Amino acid sequence: MNCSVVFLTIFFISCGLDDYYYLPAVPVGTYDSTEAKINIPNYNSYSYFHNFRIFYRIYISGETLNTRIDETNMSSISSSLSSDYNNIKPNTDTTSTTVNTSIGSMFTTRKYYELVLENTDINGVLGSSSFGSEIVFDFSSDGSGSIPTMQINNGTEYALYRSIGSTGESGFDPEPPDRYFRNSPDICLSANAIARINADVADAASTTPETPRYTYASFYIAATGIDPRNLTSVFSKPTHIGIFRLPESNQF
């Protein structure tokens, strides 16, 4: 074999996959109107893995849907929800070989924020200890102000908390102050859907009546790591967890 051919073969192999750090996407789970289940794979072979991150945005609507929300009916809830979903969707396509290195920026641009847990560091919960686990998100309502939760392998239930902004972003003061994912007069008020108050909430269409109003949240999960060469973030392609109507807080 020609030595130049051997050299070129070795060159392209050595300059291929090693040129970027890759993390596979979390497999698509299942979800219905009130619950989602995600199975977390094992990332032990990716030494640069750090944790899983969950991004969300809340949408105000005048429509009430008690069925599974997907591409066929999301536009009836909110045109903003449909627009965000369709803009993010190409980046969730695992059949594409395109590697998007700016997933974090994409979510920031769409005003998606990172999920928080009440009194618990979510980065620790969704670190390597979660490998091989089943994560269940529960948005069911018992009519008495239910608080949506996340549970891993039938263990501890963690109350889901809204963000107040993160490093590199302007902070905001969400209303109501309890930060739970529940519908209330404060969270569905258009006057509060601004950057300094409810930056994580997309306002309803201008034609939406002031009452009754409902809120829905859309969630994505991505595996993240750190590129050791330049200490920048590495993202898998995001996986859509689901869209859920938030239970009522009984403040109406």
Name a few traits of the molecule.
252 residues; alpha+beta; six-stranded antiparallel sheet; 12 strands; 15% helix; disordered N terminus
How does this structure look, described?
With 252 residues, this protein is of the alpha+beta class. It has one domain. The protein is built from five helices and twelve strands. The strands form two sheets. A six-stranded antiparallel sheet has the order 1-2-6-7-8-5, with no helix packed on it. Strands 3, 4, 9, 10, 11 and 12 form a six-stranded mixed sheet that branches. The longest helix is centred in the N-terminal third of the chain and has 12 residues, at 3-14. The termini are far apart.
Number of helices: 5
* SSE pattern, N- to C-terminal: HEEEHHHEEHEEEEEEE
Largest beta-sheet characterization:
6 strands, antiparallel
Distance between the termini: 79 Å
Strands across the major sheet, in which order?
A: 1-2-6-7-8-5
Question: What's the topology here?
Answer:
Blueprint: H1 3-14, E1 30-31, E2 35-39, E3 49-61, H2 74-77, H3 79-88, H4 103-109, E4 113-114, E5 116-117, H5 122-125, E6 134-138, E7 149-152, E8 157-161, E9 201-202, E10 214-227, E11 232-235, E12 239-245
Task: Describe the structure in brief.
The chain is an alpha+beta fold and 252 residues long. The chain has helices at residues 3-14, 74-77, 79-88, 103-109, 122-125, and strands at residues 30-31, 35-39, 49-61, 113-114, 116-117, 134-138, 149-152, 157-161, 201-202, 214-227, 232-235, 239-245.
